[in-house]
Amino acid sequence: MTEQVTTGTLVTTGTDVTRMRELNALSIVRALRGNPPSTVTELATRTGLSRPGTDVIVQGLVADGWLTVVEPDGSSVVGRPARRYRFNAGAGHVIGVDVGAHKVLAMLADLDGTVTWTTRLPVDPGADPAARLAVADAAVDECLAATGLRPEDIWAITVGVTGPVDASGRTTLFTPLPGWASVNPAEHLAARFSCPVQVENDCKLAALAERWQGAARDADDIVYLLAGMRTGAGLIIDGTLRRGYGGAAGEIGALRAVRWLTAPSHLENCASLPAGIDTDDAAAWVFNAARSGDKAARTAVRRYTRDLAVGTAALVLTLDPQVVVLGGGFSRSADLILGPLARELGRTCLRVPEIRASTLGAESVALGALRLALDEVDARLFGVGLPAPVAPRA
Amino acid sequence: MTEQVTTGTLVTTGTDVTRMRELNALSIVRALRGNPPSTVTELATRTGLSRPGTDVIVQGLVADGWLTVVEPDGSSVVGRPARRYRFNAGAGHVIGVDVGAHKVLAMLADLDGTVTWTTRLPVDPGADPAARLAVADAAVDECLAATGLRPEDIWAITVGVTGPVDASGRTTLFTPLPGWASVNPAEHLAARFSCPVQVENDCKLAALAERWQGAARDADDIVYLLAGMRTGAGLIIDGTLRRGYGGAAGEIGALRAVRWLTAPSHLENCASLPAGIDTDDAAAWVFNAARSGDKAARTAVRRYTRDLAVGTAALVLTLDPQVVVLGGGFSRSADLILGPLARELGRTCLRVPEIRASTLGAESVALGALRLALDEVDARLFGVGLPAPVAPRA
DNA sequence: ACTCTTTTGTAAAGAGCGCAGCATTATTCC
DNA sequence: GGAATAATGCTGCGCTCTTTACAAAAGAGT
């Protein structure tokens, strides 16, 4: 008889009785994360486990450094005051880096996502990849030095870059950064850090940030628009960031009929623009002028918004999201864009989603990088199961 | 102290030791589904459980009717021949219904997805909703009558309709069927069936079918194109059908710049079309003429394909799928469409996905409905946990 | 100051489950 | 017919959770 073992789909592994305990430990950790310090009784009701059982597991988690004890303060309750337990967010840390054209922004956060340190270093827009990576290294080093952490204390790193990123973390062509085609920052950082290092497109990270701490906290289906001198999009569907098979999801700007590549030129080439103004400040000037009633400026903004709306409509009709978040540099002038954008979408879309302005500003990409790094940590912890925990501060 | 119970995110419930057993039972069922009848030893190695433990669980599953025993036949192996166990696919059944303009197609399948009965009934294209639902009822009744099953034996039903469907299963406006706006077939069927009844857009179901048994079996990121007198799309991302927040994902044809609504008119209005030909046969005639070299017909096909490509490019750039599947009535002429479509996409897209022709033909929507119904059954079984199983054929 | 109430902390008994190991059984090969 | 092979079935062991019970700690009332 032939040995017909189909290993095509991975079959869920059977649950051992010791694995069950791990699951319950994870269940308790999950019940604690994001909540204020809790008593054993609270955790027991939340997880559905019995109180003694919960207690045993909690003791183990404390011994392993995952939880810390909060001795009861003099609160006025009837009955014996309870010890409270807090998730030890300082057990591990993650780093998010935003490698932009003019600057590198690195942020360090604990497992709760609380940002502990932020470093911002300028970069020459014309710097070659090696120099740019060196600045990124310096920013990361400063994060470590300022907080007294060692590379082993970092559990995940995410780097945000412009342009599409393939599954292996390599940047592909079509990037505005000089010489940045086929650079692999992940490999570069892997030399010093043994933790997982991810590289991701900046728009996608900004979308994550908006869902985490920004304007789309309540939504599971989000189209994030990066509106600035560069135009891009990041997509979150069913609560998860979608990259596409080749990592190029959202790059609708490449379609000629979608005028995203040239949309900002309406602002740069505005007729009423003063002569000596810098390219980087031109857009801001035009928005201000439009706000004060300048005819040519208003036309420029209208044309820009109309071009922006074409691609947005394609995204909205493809995905039917709950929310469209307008981010990027131009989101500071959202008051001028939101209305016309909504009108344009109303003309073309079956169901017009809410349109909101970003609330995060320039830190959104780095924040999203933190979020992705935290997701990576969570996936490893909750997916495979609590591995021998890195005893924190031994 | 204030009672701060955050019930915002549902916390995973703790695992009881009896729940563990359910999980292991599910694990064994999963290891058996889609595989040929297996011995206990095979199941033990596949699930990672011990052989005695596996045996106990298997006995229980047999007693509950989930598994059936296959006594050893005279196969030539050394050693004691093993009993084999087979998933009892007949323990439950699902029904998929395709409510089209000209016909209603109902299919009945067991839990393995093996189609047991198919009924096809004609409908007058102008029939009102009540008459159309009556035909659907008749088709479902015939499935039951022919197989001798009762309504209680059906574990899930999915109905495919044209046009967008919202989360509650109501059809919305923008449907080509007469009077079909805001009809709720789910409610209608719920009167006779107590099982879950889903209503879904036909394009989306066809996409599911292609991934299940059609041209995209190997892909997790799929754009399905319905190319016929009506044009539509269905999206599968990360292996899951995506509906969008309002259920209108993929309805990019509503964008005016995307000429999907009018694309087929290039074929209908072809100059070389003979006078007396029926509207429904016009397209087929034009494709045949183009194949034999008719100039006007070739132009019509080229224009049609170009219009089809605009929307397809938007979908591809938004999602970056692995595969585009060309389905619908025109997929019979895929030899004429695939090449030009690929060329158009090559001009506009960063990464051109594979383009394949559908292999399922007219049954794709009903098949996809079956798949969705089976998914619903799986979700209830594997998600919540094996409920008191419906003792099959008591 | 004492007792009562309420809630927490902790220990012991009981049950269910999976695993390892050994004896038993059924079949083929020599 | 005997040896080799592989599946089946049974028993004891360890692990985990739950239930039950009791001791400890703090405030409220008399």
From TrEMBL, chains A, B:
Pfam families named in the record: MarR_2 (PF12802), ROK (PF00480)
Transmembrane annotation, as ranges: none
InterPro entries, sorted: ATPase_NBD, HTH_MarR-typ, ROK, WH-like_DNA-bd_sf, WH_DNA-bd_sf
All copies of domain HTH marR-type, residue ranges: 25-73
Similarity comment: Belongs to the ROK (NagC/XylR) family.
Protein name: Transcriptional regulator
